Request: fold
Amino acid sequence: MDKKITLILSYVILSICLLAIMHEYSRDIDSYKVLYDQSNLYNFSFIHEKFYYEYVFLFLFFIFSKLFGFLQFLNFYDLFFILGSILIFLKLKIFSQYHYFKIAIFLYLALQLISMHEGSQLRSAIITFFLLYAISIENNKILKVLILSVISIFFHKVGIILLVTISFKFFLFFSISLIVFFFLKDTFILAVLNFYDFTEYLSAKAYADYYKLENVVQNPSSITNSIFWAQLIISVIGFFNYRNLSNIQKSALYVVTFSVISYLIFLYTPNISSRIIELSLVGLIPLFCSSKIKLNIFWYTKSIFLFYILFYQSTLYTILFYSNYSK
Reply:
């Protein structure tokens, strides 16, 4: 099938999925609906004070909300769908440059269907686009990714992860820095709390020390999370097969590995660990599909764990679909 036809058909299918997710399974769309409604009632100063979103994203969404509110034949869901569908198209354009274009689309659909950020978490959808784009850059990578990471941080703080795609040295630097932060974070955060409120990032111990509390209940992420273990094994095998990877595949490997390290470091701050491990799933697509695969034991072993992730995700989707329609 012609690549353009495949691109169009994939876009139509994913857009239909986007509509279904927005209206049936979306987790966070209500918070964006509140932001939309508030934006049409108040000025930006009030919105900026009330909502925690990053400044640039907040300002742009505020402008779009005002515009769609003025055009009375359009509403919030139209805005959300248009923005989401644009991001889907941009991601498909990136996939179209991959050696295994059709498999890349399938993986995107399989890995992201229910958690499809375009239908739920718009800021995360923007970051995954930036992440895919950063992974795919091959020329003048340092400068381009530095600029891209600065831009992405204005949409979501997790955008800092783009920097690990630059090279192995950058990946190693940020990984070591993260490990050092793990051992010093409580001391560091408590030392600067007088200047900035870091309480949402505190570990249970530091949080208790700061507020002088004896009992703090904080449910950690699970160390037995099978998706985490599958990505960990894929990362280890990826480095054993490092010499056979293309530059794009190496950048994708850095993202997946860094997310595994981050998951362990932020195990007791699940709002961070779960978000990073979820975002990094998109890195599996260029890792497996961007360049021609050299068949060997490493590739076959990685594929087993990729298939496990796909099986896990598809089983989860089936349960969610069934539970939703059996109500």
Remarks:
- Confidence is low (pLDDT under 50) at residues 210-217.
